[in-house]
Design goal:
This protein is of the alpha+beta class. The chain is built from 6 helices and 9 strands, in the order E-H-E-E-H-H-E-E-H-E-H-E-H-E-E. It has 3 domains: 69 residues, no CATH class; 80 residues, K homology (KH) domain (GMP Synthetase, Chain A, domain 3, 2-Layer Sandwich), CATH 3.30.300.20; 65 residues, R3H-like domain (Ribosomal Protein S8, Chain: A, domain 1).
């Protein structure tokens, strides 16, 4: 099925209806743009009026935006800068953490992964991961202090990320069932970009619901609604 078509009619509404019939979708599934409107002058007053509109499926728009975002993301592949960033992170953590708490720093595909382990480290995770997310932001800032392109830093503490991911996936399924049962959209609490991605990924192949994010950081939220 075509993702974008040009339709025409005597009025804007007629042109849109003709396009929807050709695509075999409802109006809420497309984005409409009037691209041409032939107005009748005094000399061609009897000529039929023609309006042309472009209809693009919203799923295609989302795919284009997603691909554009991937294309625009630039990865810092400067090994010297990454090595210096690791040294800066290690220096900070050696001074910040108590001696009985251990950490490991690794570089995978030009990204830095920090893993902290030890007894009584819950205070470094915080309520719903608030502290670990804040600490990750600090480490990212340290890593990028002198870098030419952004270096990504991922922090995990005692396997918290994996546990949190499982919790979010279970939440996504539960909310999706509620949305299907009630027919009403549900907006989740503000989440980090990583947590929102978990929700989107879990439900991206769902047959009855779809997700999108709204709001500004750090209060950006995921909305789950019927397709």
């Amino acid at each position: 099925m075509a993702k974008t078509i040009i339709a025409q009619g005597k009025t804007t509404n007629e042109a849109i209806e003709n396009g929807l019939k050709e695509l075999k979708v409802s109006k809420d599934m497309v984005e409409v743009k009037v691209i041409e409107e032939e107005k009748r002058s005094f000399y061609n007053i009897l000529a039929p009026r023609v309006v042309k509109v472009e209809l693009k499926l919203k799923d295609e728009i989302k795919r284009e935006e997603k691909n554009t975002g991937k294309a625009e993301r630039k990865i810092n592949k400067n090994e010297k800068e990454i090595e210096e960033a690791v040294e800066q992170i290690n220096d900070f953590l050696n001074n910040f953490l108590q001696k009985e708490i251990k950490f490991k720093t690794e570089v995978k595909e030009y990204e830095i992964y920090v893993d902290i382990n030890g007894e009584d480290v819950n205070h470094l995770i915080g309520y719903r991961g608030e502290t670990i997310n804040a600490l990750q932001t600090v480490l990212t800032s340290i890593a990028n202090k002198k870098s030419s392109l952004k270096i990504r830093v991922y922090l995990d503490i005692e396997g918290y990320r994996e546990k949190r991911e499982k919790t979010l996936e279970d939440l996504a399924e539960k909310i999706a069932r509620t949305v299907v049962r009630t027919g009403k959209s549900i907006t989740l609490e503000p989440m980090t970009a990583y947590e929102r991605k978990v929700i989107h990924t879990k439900l991206q192949t769902h047959s009855k619901v779809e997700t999108f994010s709204k709001g500004e950081e750090p209060y950006r939220k995921v909305v789950i609604k019927l397709k």
